[in-house]
Design brief:
mainly alpha; Arp2/3 complex 21 kDa subunit ARPC3; globular
Amino acid sequence: MQKGKIKQMVVVSMLSTIAYVLMMLDFPFPGLPPFLKIDFSEVPALLAAIIFGPAAGIMVEAIKNVLHYGIVGSFTGVPVGQLANFIAGIIFILPVSYLFRTKHTFKRLSLGLILGTALMTLMMGFLNYVIILPAYTWFLGAEPMSSQVMMDLILKGITPFNLIKGTIITLLFLAIYNRMKPWVMRQISQQA
C-alpha cells in the first residue's frame, strides 16, 4: 500500500514537471489574439487523471501552474492567467477521468475528451465574462471593458481558442494513448 502511494507521488511529480515544460512551449494560434497561447500541458494531467484518478490530475494542474507563476510570474503581478489555466485544465480533465475510470474503453475516453472540450469552451467563456477578464483589467489598472467588448473578445477569441486547444489536445492524447495503452492499463490494474 505504502509503495503504491510513493510510486503515485513520484509519477505525479514527474508528470507535473513535464506539464510545466510543455506549458513553457506555448505558441499563439494564427487568427486569434496573441495573448491566447496553446500548449500541451494538459496531456500529462490527463494521463495522471486516467491512471490515478481526478485528484492526481488536479494535482498536476496545480503544481504546473504554481511552478509557472513562481518561475515566470505574471504581467498583472497576480496569477490571473495561471488561475484561468488551472480552472480550464480541471474542467477539461475531470469528465475524461470520470468517464474513462468507470469503463476503460477507447469510446469512453473519446467521449470524455469531447465532453471536456465542450465544457471547457462553454465554462471558460462564462468565467471570462464574469471573473477573469474583469480581474485582468482591475489588476492592470485599466478601464473596465464594456459588456460588448468582452462579448466580442469571448466569442471571437476565447471561445474559438478553447475549442481549438481542446480539439488539438484530444487528437494528440488519443494518439499518445494508442501507443501507451498497454502501459496505462497495467498502471490502472495495479491501482485496483
